[in-house]
Amino acid sequence: MSLPRTRLEGPGGEVVIADDEPFVLIGERINPTGRRRLTEELIAGDMTTVRDDARRQVEAGARVLDLNAGIPGFDEPAMLAAVVRAVREVVDVPLCIDSSTPEALEAAVPLAEGKVLINSVTAEERSLERLLPLVARFGAAVIGMANDEQGISMDPERRLAAARRIVEAAADHGIDRADVIIDPLTMPVGAASDAATSLLATVRLVREELGVNVSCGASNVSFGMPARPEIDAAFLAIAIAAGMNAAIANPLHREVRKAVLATDVLLGRDPAGARWIADHRAEAAARGG
Amino acid sequence: MAHDLEILQQALIAADPGEALAATERLLAAGVAPTTILEEGMAAAMFELGERWKRGEAFLPEVVASAEVFKRCNELVEPALLATRDPDAEANALVVLATVKGDLHDLGKNMVAAMLRTSGFDVLDLGKDVSADRIVEVVREQAPQIVGLSALLTTTVPYQETVIRRLEDAGLRDAVKVMVGGAPVTPEWAERIGADGYANNAPEAVEIARKLVGAPQ
Fold this sequence. Notes:
heterodimer, A: 289 residues, alpha/beta, TIM Barrel, eight-stranded parallel beta sheet, 10 strands, globular, B: 217 residues, Methyltransferase, Methionine Synthase (B12-binding Domains), Chain A, domain 1, Rossmann fold, 2 domains, 9 helices, 10% strand
């Protein structure tokens, strides 16, 4: 089955997630979870790090930016709106609005300009009912996490069933299949040896059975391991080969950025290696070489 | 005995179940107090492992494996511990622990469970990905003094509030103290959702639990 093309758009133009397009790296850095300084700045209304991270990630090859402003106990709608405004001052790529709170999405999505990706719904009835009407109204695309009321299963078939529920519910809300991206859920390989293989199996199943694009939060796979960027890089290469066309990851790690570019060359998504060579020259120039 | 405590510590850190269980059995057979085995052998090892984790010297598969061995040693020690416990001690309070629904991160919660047990609390660990329904049901049936809620994701932290509201709806909120924890959780959040306590790590969770049941510090 040929997959539909998921089109996102920012003021600078569109980005397409599809088999015959370059892999789409969604920059993960603008997220206060586990980032003490960013958390303190967001609480103080200081957008310095947000702007820096936006600029640096796009320079490093992020083609979409994930924006998260979830700090328990604080005003997420206001904070997320402020983050979107700050990011829009410095970059023009499409945005991935990372919130499961309708109020925060209402506040942030209209400021994002263009066609956004909403991150995320789950297969839980409550999540689907609360968020899909908003996705439809904003004409947005949406990431569906493959877990349901029963929680997160390690069984690819159960994840597929959750994904199917999301795809069907989206259709009921008039959302185009092309605008649904399934996240098969990345678990740390350090906690379960089959975390990555079961994810890859889910990627293949979701593509074959549901015919939708697949994305994931890649960095979680290496949680608790040494040399995380190297694991993330290898993971991205095999996930892309299995049919994943986008992922939320950290482009500021050179290993990650290079792995994505190299995989595109190897899979014929970078004709004549033009982007690979351009990246090499840009690095050489930056070194003063 | 000191030697076997040392062996137990090293075996736990190395996640060697054979050595760890054998040392635990020898210590119990020699009549060493179960609290001593827990505190000076098992908890000391997990504390050391936690320090190595923080320094980036121990890694997730190792911690998971050690936690598993800890659990098995604990199964040996727990019956002895219960047999020696002073039934009148205030710290004999029951604590129900859960990682909230949608969240599979249970290492921190398991450490809290172990530390609480070590400190003389009875612990009923409901596991991970636990629904508010289940927690309400257990609070109703077991009447614990404390419920501890762990959440490691920004998307699951709000569920701590859901559980508290559900306890209120069930008319059980005043019957139990609620403490919350997890990496994204802050003291401000705990206060806002009306939790009775917040802990940043396992030893702190024990302190807070003691405070909540009015035990001497």
